[in-house]
Specification:
alpha+beta, 3 helices, 2 strands, globular
């Protein structure tokens, strides 16, 4: 198992990931950082935990919207095997985002 230190909102976090997934993890950290930057640009001066919860909720909202778009696509054309795999991955990502948000809310 690999470990990678990512920086979000000026804080360093060491996170474990599967070997070979370091670049993917770094890209995901950059996505979180971009949401944090958007929230801060709106004038939010919240504490670190609250800022990360807001970023997680923003990402969960984006995933929710993508799920709705996928559902709308399913109604307009037949589902292919590729669509099913994409929907499964999207659902897993949404579930993981909700787990992260719940963990952050507890801290």
């Amino acid at each position: 198992m690999a470990q990678l230190t990512v920086k979000i909102n000026g804080y360093a976090y060491t996170v474990a990931c599967a070997d070979g997934q370091e670049q993917h993890l770094q890209a995901m950290a950059e996505q979180v950082e971009s949401r944090v930057d958007r929230i801060r640009a709106l004038g939010s001066q919240s504490g670190e935990a609250r800022l990360l919860v807001q970023a997680a909720l923003l990402m969960a909202d984006e995933l929710h919207d993508l799920k709705l778009e996928m559902a709308a696509l399913r109604r307009t054309r037949p589902i292919t095997a590729e669509d099913g795999a994409l929907n499964d991955r999207l659902s897993a990502l949404a579930d993981r985002a909700e787990e992260i948000a719940a963990t952050l809310e507890r801290h």
